[in-house]
Amino acid sequence: MKNFIEEVTWRGMLHDVMPGTEEHLMEQMRVAYVGIDPTADSLHIGHLVGVMLLRHFQLSGHKPLALVGGATGMIGDPSGKSNERNLLDEATLRHNQEAIKAQLARFLDFTSAEANAAELVNNYDWMKEFSFLDFIRDVGKHITVNYMMAKDSVKKRLTGETSEGMSFTEFTYQLVQGYDFLHLYRAKKCTLQMGGSDQWGNITTGTELVRRIESGKAYALTCPLITKADGTKFGKSEGGNIWLDAERTSPYKFYQYWLNTSDVDAEKYIKIFTFLDKETIEKLIVEHNEAPHLRALQKRLAEEITVMVHSAADLENAIAASNAFFSPSMDELKKLDEKTFLEVFDGVPQAEISMEDLSAGLDMIAALAAKTNFLASNSDARRELKQNSISLNKEKVGEDKIITKEDLINNQFLLLQKGKKNYYVIKVK
């Protein structure tokens, strides 16, 4: 039996833990769960800490349960939020559950013949037949309103300056989550719930129900809420969430997100989001500190997590796309598909012209100004061309260059460049 608490502690994944948890886990195989919000058909990287906790739990010889909150997803957890969430119907929640399980299978072993095989459970399955009267009689009577009001998730919503209060539906959330723990304690012998630090109040409501109704002992463990060194929100980019679904966030953009982390964040994230051992990580940190410009930590972090979430082939493509941008030749760029090419040049000014414009040949003045407005005027285009500062597909060109179909990248794109850093993309239709 591996010491789970020691493992998550050195990785910086432990925020708070109920006394006696470590001893409890070292006695024999235990069962723990993490709740996952099913409001989308994909996890995003904000979910990954909880998933990694479950994986480390399984690697330590214990049995992980991933609880998809089909019932609680219909209510909305007030923790850390200022507004009530939109509620989903059952069909949508079921679809989301299946998509999420497929992603979890890249981290957790659901098919093992061992006793600690992972399981996916949905609290809608045991809550859907539970009537309101039965719930308030069998569960609600065991927890006082005073106890519920004392929770931070409730107090913050009721006392905040911009607070609009909270609905009765949200107020009862902690009871519903607490009942999940009680149900899993009874049905699966689950004795530990894990989650983010903002979940402590909800988790301990569950341990209290286990104590009061079953006279049992249950435990709570939370991990820190992940932050970025610059104060911006972890897991977000300018385009929104960083998703695990390749259709929502491409492997290239996923890889780039981790590659662009700061030195401080990379040192923290490589412990949390990879399964590299302590010795390997410590060596990487030393290597990085000796030559920070080589970004050894960021590269290894991005490589490990991209393979884990996507595949080795996706990683190779992402690296090739990253290198293509900086390559002095067009060989790598020509290998990219349309979607990846546009992602590599995301944010670069773009213009469209018709294939007919190339049929008779397109002169450089038109390509830079008249047809695209990349430069303000024809005279500006002529001046830049005379100064030898314009490149077409990474090769310097003059005013006499005529662009034809043969110049197209993947029969679709032209890449213009003014100086070293100013790129322009022409898409030909």
UniProtKB/TrEMBL annotation:
Instruction: Say which enzyme class the record assigns.
Output: ligase
Where is the Tyrosine--tRNA ligase SYY-like C-terminal domain positioned along the sequence?
Answer: 343-426
Q: Self-association or partners: how does it assemble? A: Homodimer.
Q: Which family does it belong to?
A: Belongs to the class-I aminoacyl-tRNA synthetase family. TyrS type 1 subfamily.
PANTHER family in UniProt = TYROSINE--TRNA LIGASE, MITOCHONDRIAL, TYROSYL-TRNA SYNTHETASE
Q: Which gene encodes it?
A: tyrS
Q: Please indicate if the UniProt record lists Aminoacyl-tRNA synthetase as a keyword.
A: yes
Instruction: Provide the catalytic activity annotation.
Output: tRNA(Tyr) + L-tyrosine + ATP = L-tyrosyl-tRNA(Tyr) + AMP + diphosphate + H(+)
Name it. Tyrosine--tRNA ligase
Pfam families hit by this protein? SYY_C-terminal (PF22421), tRNA-synt_1b (PF00579)
Which keywords accompany this UniProt record? Aminoacyl-tRNA synthetase, ATP-binding, Cytoplasm, Ligase, Nucleotide-binding, Protein biosynthesis, RNA-binding
Which residues are recorded as binding L-tyrosine? Answer: 33, 173, 177
Protein location: Cytoplasm
Which residue numbers does the motif 'HIGH' region cover? 38-47
* A GO term, aspect molecular function: tyrosine-tRNA ligase activity
Q: What does this protein do?
A: Catalyzes the attachment of tyrosine to tRNA(Tyr) in a two-step reaction: tyrosine is first activated by ATP to form Tyr-AMP and then transferred to the acceptor end of tRNA(Tyr).
